[in-house]
């Protein structure tokens, strides 16, 4: 008998990518929050250099995390729903 190839559920790939994107966004948002808390105590030059990052995460961070959470939810549901289909042996 020849070994059978197991098919990969494509929704798992989406889950990994969306999970990593959410991880990076959440960490960046946390860094932004810490930088805003410490900004009165840091050097003015560093605050000006980080201002664009802080402003970007302040404006777009929550929306990005909500979109990524929605993608994670849909991909999780899709992965669970189609798991039996993708785990069946392919007799080609």
TL;DR?
The protein is an all-alpha fold.
Description:
The model has no long low-confidence stretch (mean pLDDT 82). This protein has one domain. The radius of gyration is 21 Å and the shape is elongated. It contains two helices and no strands. It is mainly α and 92 residues long.
Write the layout of secondary structure elements.
Layout: H1 10-38, H2 44-87
Helix pairs in contact: 1-2
The helix count comes to 2
Into how many domains do the coordinates divide? 1
Percentage of β-strand residues: under 5%
Radius of gyration in whole Å, from Cα? 21 Å
Which word captures the global form? elongated
Uncertain segments of ≥5 residues (pLDDT<50)?
none
Structural class: mainly alpha
Tag the structure with descriptive keywords.
92 residues; mainly alpha
């Amino acid at each position: 008998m020849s070994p059978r190839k197991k098919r990969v559920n494509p929704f798992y790939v989406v889950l990994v990518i969306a999970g990593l994107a959410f991880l990076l966004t959440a960490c960046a948002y946390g860094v932004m929050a810490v930088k805003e808390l410490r900004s009165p105590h840091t050097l003015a030059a560093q605050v000006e250099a980080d201002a664009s990052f802080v402003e970007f995460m302040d404006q777009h961070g929550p929306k990005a995390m909500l979109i990524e959470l929605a993608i994670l939810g849909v991909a999780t549901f899709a992965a669970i729903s189609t798991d039996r289909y993708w785990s069946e042996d392919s007799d080609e």
